[in-house]
Amino acid sequence: MRVLLGLLVVACHGEPTALPPTTVRCAVIGGMLETGFWQGLAERYQRLTGNKVELVATGPKDVVVTAFRKGGVDLVTFHASDAFVNLVADGVAVDPEPWARNDLVIVGPADDPAHIRGERDAVAAVQKIVDTKQSLVIHASMGADGVLHDLGVKIPAEQMVVFGGENQHAILDRAAEAHAYTLVGRIPFVDGKLHHDGIELMVRGDPRLRRPYLVATAPHSTPAARDLARWLRSPETQQWIAAYGKGRFDPDPLFFPVEVR
Question: pTM of the prediction?
């Protein structure tokens, strides 16, 4: 059985005795709460183990990182990034593991001058943007620069509009202003939270547009925190992730599982 279904100690008389429920204090990136995804996971884990999953910090990446660095948090999860690597390098977090993904979509002007609407191949779409000499807003704050780099399409400097802000609404403003394409998170775009008149969905569904989330625990964290991190990567949880939110906005789940071997 799972460790926390037991969390058993042997009493003096030799019989196993269940330990009291343990609270796992978590710092979680805000996007996981907006669709009820993290809440659903926490409820399942609490029912299975009797432990409590307490959300002590959520919001943008910098909020989550700051809270975890201050201490008093057992487990942290947000996108794989330099910020996550630095938590591990600084000895603040241990045992980082991928456990879920979300994805980006390519959006652009309603008149679609590159003719990419409905394309499922992100490489082909970006190449068409380049070939038709359209502009592409590129921003590092949402991880889109890394996704674009990994697609392997050479984008001429004169077609790149570099954006340094972290607000996705401002990214859409910049794309509209430049009559350009850009990449944004699928969930906030398809649920209408992220919207700009004249900017429409063009490309979705290519696995190469997905970004992984990592989970890690604090050094010397409780067995319950480490068990929760393992449970997020369990086959049962990965199956749940693969079905979560299917059909809510489009045929895909809202988040995607990872390969665990």
Answer: 0.88
- Residue 128 tokens read as 């068409």
3-class SS shares of the chain: helix, strand, coil, % to 5:
35, 25, 35
Q: Which residue has the tokens 């926490």?
A: 42
Q: Please, which residues bridge with residue 55 across strands? A: 26
Q: Which long-range contacts (CB under 8 A, 24 or more apart) does 85-90 make?
A: 87/216, 88/216
DSSP letter at 21?
Answer: P
- Would residue 72 be called left, alpha or beta, if left means φ above 0 and alpha means ψ between -120 and 50 degrees? left
Paired residues of 160 in beta bridges: 136
CATH of the domain at 15: 3.40.190.10
72-128: per-residue pLDDT in tens? 999 999 999 999 999 999 999 999 999 999 999 999 999 999 999 999 999 999 999
Domain assignment of residue 140, yes or no = yes
Q: If we measure between CA atoms, which residue out of 65, 61, 151 comes closest to residue 104?
A: 151
